[in-house]
User: What shape does this take?
Amino acid sequence: MNKLLGFFSGTVKILNSISKKSTLLDVGCGGGLFLLHLNNVFPQIKMLGMDISAAAINDANQSLQCWQAKNPDICVSFQLQEQSQLNCYQNSFDIILSTLVCHHLTNDELVIFLQQAYLAAGTAVIINDLHRHRLAYWLYGLVSPLLFRNRLITHDGLISIRRGFTRVEWQRLLQQAGIKNYQLKWCFPFRWKLILWK
Ligand SMILES: C[S@@+](CC[C@H](N)C(=O)[O-])C[C@H]1O[C@@H](n2cnc3c(N)ncnc32)[C@H](O)[C@@H]1O
Assistant: This one.
């Protein structure tokens, strides 16, 4: 799904412009596949995936074992996030990445997350999420059953789009978080690429 929507290639493009000798934290890494594929492209970047779901971290560690069988030197690890808020030291990672996680948070939680991620990142925070738009909702409802043939994927996807963001909402949230140095770009099809630069 991340490849289909362009989140993966968009993230690769940003990381290409950042030093290859970096450390990266993926907040809300889910089953870890995004990070494992990302490490294939950037094997020099030390990557940690965190998620509040124990089941997700379990899946991620199982996938990691399979990938380690092919590449024992892989620089990826996964860790359970004990609390819903990020609790990292200042500049503890060069890059903080978060894909399709922000729409799970309330506005208040999101403002705190933006502030904490901004503090913890030494170079940049990369956020990928969905654009809430009627056309996106309608198109996804039409195409998803044909593509995935799975009612749960269609249902979850529609909820996620409903919880997505408009440009004005991002601008308001970033203002509340006190973050000024950012790039907010709308990308096809109905996704946002938000980069907070230090
Ligand atoms: C839609 S999945 C995205 C997974 C992954 N980033 C990807 O793109 O494949 C959202 C993930 O965010 C996690 N999550 C939700 N709230 C979180 C929080 N406050 N801190 C860390 N992870 C969170 C969920 O457990 C879930 O695994």
Observations:
- Helices lie at 2-5, 7-16, 33-41, 54-70, 107-120, 134-148, 151-162, 167-177.
- The chain is about 45% helix and 25% strand.
